[in-house]
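Open question from group meeting: does this chain pack into something compact, or does most of it stay loose? Before anyone orders reagents, we agreed to write out a predicted structure and look at it together. Recording both the input and the output here so the notebook holds the full record.
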Amino acid sequence: MPLTRVEPGEVATIVTALEMRERPRPRPLPASPFRLDHWRAPAPARYRALFRRVGAPWLWFSRLVMADDALAAILDDPAVELHAVVDAAGVELGMLELDFREANACELSFFGLVPELTGRGVGRWLMAHALALGWRAGVERMWVHTCTLDHPHALGFYVASGFRPYARAVESFADPRLAGVLPRDAAPHVPLIEDSSRRVSRAT
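Structure tokens returned:
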């Protein structure tokens, strides 16, 4: 079976889209030492700080390279809701972003926690809130996408939460670590393969 070459300086990933077509049975929200803070139209700098804290280990970069006015247009839209996961000391440790701009649909556009919370059940707590907030009047479909750069349990977690895969695609893009958008030691599980001409340039 032939392989498709990924050029040095680029990253490739398999993206899986998942959806939920029926509102799940209501369940009591699990107890947690954390709370959700609804951020209404946050400043781009504040948003990016949390986005980077949560997403850098998985090479999230899309909102880091977006122009301020374009990002503000999303964050200021009343059909987009951002919630920060906050601990008792007021430290923000995760994010939940819901996008209702498509009629009768809710996209779980960003969902994540800092790595220190992995495996502690906080993801299930956050998903319970995501489903409770997303399935509101008029919503007929929730959907989300994940990729092979995410946590290795991410896809299984979404399936276990009730989402069903319906599409898959391969995406490639310039490695954001080489452009300085993210630190070079971010996402160590993803090899950083630099173009040889770039290495020579850096050495001279």
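Observations to bring back to the group:
The first strand starts at residue 10 and ends at 20.
The chain has one domain: 10-25+32-203.
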